[in-house]
Amino acid sequence: MYRPTRKPLVHSLLLLASAALAACGSNGDYVELSPPAPSTTVSGVAATGAAISGGNVALRCGGGLGANAVSGADGRWSASVPSASLPCAVRISGGTVGGVANASVFYSLARAGSGTASTANLTPISDLALAAAVNSATGSVLEAWYASATDAQRQQVADGLAAAIANLRTAFTDAGYTLPAGDFDPFTAAIVAGGATDAYDQLLEAYRQALDDAGRSYETGRSSYTGGGGVTAPMDPEEPEPPVGTPLPDDKLGVSFTDASAAHLWLQPDGQGGVSVLDGEGDGKIAVNMGDRTDGGPDGSVQFNTIPNKLGTFACGDAVGTSKLHMQVTFNGITNPRKTYVSFGDAADPDQRPLLEGYSCSLTLTHVGAFESRYIYNDDYVEGTFTAKLRQRSQECTGEGGTCQPFKDLVISTGKFRINKAGRYTPPTPPPAAKSVLGPMLKRVVAGDYVLKCSTSQGQPAQSFNFSVAQDGSSSFNGAALVDATHPGTIKSDGDQSSFTTLAFTPAASNSDYVVIGFKKDGTFYPNSVRSGGSVYQCYFNTGHTAPATTSAAIDNIRVAAGNLARTETLNCTQGGATAARTLTIASDGSAQLGDLAFTSGQLYTITDGLLFATVKKATLSWSQPSAFRSLAVEVNADLKTTGVLAGVGLGPNDAISCTP
Question: What are the sequence ranges of the domains in the chain?
Answer without folding.
Answer: 39-229, 254-419, 439-558, 562-660
